[in-house]
Design goal:
Elements lengths: L1 H4 L12 H6 L1 H12 L3 H12 L8 E6 L2 E6 L2 H10 L4 E2 L2 H11 L8 H11 L5 H4 L3 H15 L5 E2 H18 L12 H19 L11 H21 L2 H10 L5 H6 L5 H30 L3 H14 L11 H6 L1 H13 L5 E6 L3 E7 L5 E5 L4 E5 H5 L46 H18 L2 E4 L20 H7 L19 E5 L1
Parallel strand pairs: 2-8
Antiparallel strand pairs: 1-2, 3-5, 4-10, 5-8, 6-7, 9-10
Length: about 500
């Protein structure tokens, strides 16, 4: 079957040992070991560098992992096929759904086919332009953040504060519910969610061997999440159908959980839909904003330019009016700063699709990697958007004078435009993030509001960098990935499901 659809990709192996080649034990161990040391990006770069040496299209290989043939790719043509042109051939797949079922059930991030389509249809009203343009829920949480956490030049753990802001904002916006993460220093829901994500990350890295991963306290933490959401679910499930139908018509009192309740009163269904929105609404926003401020603290010139753009658009100072949605869309440097953060720090650096039927990928077979790769139904494909967005080919058409790709430079976006399928921070194709405009509006609004109030940022801690050992240099020079990781001031990147700094980010916002 594999030959019928194209053939094998180049096989990656650390050694000639039968155990390595048959079960991929060395690969699995190295992947796990690098992850525990926050070196996923280094491992991914190393594996592509070794398997792709001398090949015209070096970003696809295969490995046997626990007896399961697994494809790795960062080739834009293959990613385009999975997410776009061959969308019906790929999905989450049964193995992925099993690993994430306890947390996500049949929610949109863990669904395929009709379940995915129906879930996405229910989400659309949440992110229509009228709702996204209403910034009231963001403003409420920003005022709490400023008054309780940032005022007086206090030292704050920015990673923690922005994570709480994002959780409160999505709760307010999508559910009409006050999570109070910013107000409540000890938030059991937030703590349990972080522990669950850590375990899920390890399980995902283990892939077919995930059943070996110990899960201490996992069920207890799941119950914390259940207990937190239960009152909200109970309220929505108890509403008469006539009330829910009226909300659909008038939009008055509409929330996402109530929209779900109009479809089904099943509490498991409501819980999984709710959890999917919470995770999506928090992780992208919190991670991207923390990375943005970590870059701005090193660039007072950029911060001054941003404040100048904000001043010219809506004004600066504590009494300045808040921006409208149209104001945010008009601020090019604000938009480009967020684009640049997402270019260097895509929220989900590794993602997965599974062949839902016998199919192929366009490239990766033969000596140069120019011919298709055949896939049997059930074959997992791991793709790296981080390697994709840091590959040399992505920057071949950069205008003269553009900063090197590993450098944080929002001004590059004034002239540079990435080629299709080389910049995918929100995915692509039919499954592209439905909340993309919401996330960008939320991030831009917070960035503008904080820069209206504060003119300087100050680090209040020393942060660890990334290890300089074990880099592959097939052509003798440092790759873009290595230059990115080893740039002075680049903080250690956590090896979790979503990209974030490993350590606390102690920072002060000053007038």
């Amino acid at each position: 079957m594999i030959q019928k659809y194209g053939g094998h990709a180049v096989k990656f192996s650390f050694s000639n040992s039968p155990l390595d080649n048959i079960f991929g034990l060395r690969f699995a161990w190295e992947f796990y070991r690098h992850g525990r040391r926050d070196e996923y990006l280094k491992f991914t770069h190393r594996s592509f560098a070794q398997s792709g040496a001398g090949r015209a299209n070096p970003y696809t290989y295969e490995v046997n992992l626990g007896g399961v043939r697994t494809i790795w790719t960062a080739d834009p043509e293959n990613i385009k096929a999975m997410l776009g042109s061959q969308f019906e051939d790929y999905g989450r797949g049964k193995a992925f759904q099993s690993r994430w079922h306890d947390l996500l059930g049949t929610g949109i991030f863990n669904a395929d086919g009709r379940e995915w389509h129906d879930s996405r249809h229910r989400l659309r009203p949440l992110f229509n332009r009228q709702r996204v343009s209403n910034l009231d829920s963001f403003e409420r949480q920003i005022q709490i953040m400023i008054n309780r956490h940032l005022g007086g030049g206090r030292t704050v753990d920015l990673k923690d504060v922005i994570s709480r802001f994002a959780l409160d904002a999505i709760g307010d916006y999508a559910m009409g519910f006050q999570v109070n993460a910013l107000a409540d220093r000890k938030n059991d829901f937030l703590d349990a969610l972080e522990r669950i994500k850590t375990i899920q990350n390890i399980k995902e890295c283990a892939g077919p061997l995930s059943w070996l991963v110990p899960t201490p306290g996992f069920k207890r933490d799941l119950k914390v999440l259940d207990d937190f959401m239960e009152p909200l679910i109970e309220h929505a499930a108890s509403l008469p159908q006539s009330v829910l139908d009226e909300m659909e018509k008038t939009d008055h009192g509409w929330t996402y959980v109530k929209a779900c309740a109009s479809v089904s009163r099943d509490r498991h269904f409501l819980k999984y839909e709710l959890m999917s929105v919470i995770l999506a609404g928090r992780d992208t926003v919190s991670g991207t904003l923390v990375w943005t401020f970590l870059e701005l603290v090193k660039r007072p010139d950029l911060m001054a330019d941003l404040r100048r753009e904000i001043e010219n658009t809506v004004g600066i100072g504590r009494d300045a009016p808040r921006p409208t949605h149209d104001d945010l869309r008009s601020m090019r440097l604000v938009k480009n700063t967020l684009n640049e953060t997402l270019r260097l720090y895509p929220t989900v650096s590794l993602n997965l699709r599974t062949a839902l039927r016998d199919t192929s990928l366009p490239r990766g077979n033969d000596h140069d990697g120019n011919k298709p790769v055949g896939l049997a139904e059930g074959t997992p494909v791991i793709f790296s958007s981080h390697i994709l967005q840091l590959s040399p080919e992505t920057y071949e058409q950069s205008p003269p004078g553009t900063s090197p790709p590993h450098v944080f430079d929002p001004y590059r976006w004034e002239e540079w435009k990435p080629k299709p399928w080389t910049y995918i921070p929100f995915g692509g194709g039919p499954r592209i993030c439905i909340g993309q405009e919401f996330a960008l509006a939320e991030m831009a609004f917070l960035l503008v509001r904080l820069l209206q109030n504060y003119s300087r940022l100050e680090m209040r801690c020393e942060m660890r960098g990334n290890s300089d050992e074990g880099w592959e240099r097939p052509n003798g020079s440092a790759s873009i990935v290595e230059q990115f990781m080893m740039e002075k001031g680049r903080v250690r990147i956590s090896g979790d499901v979503t990209l974030s700094p490993r350590d606390k980010v102690l920072m002060a916002f000053l007038p």
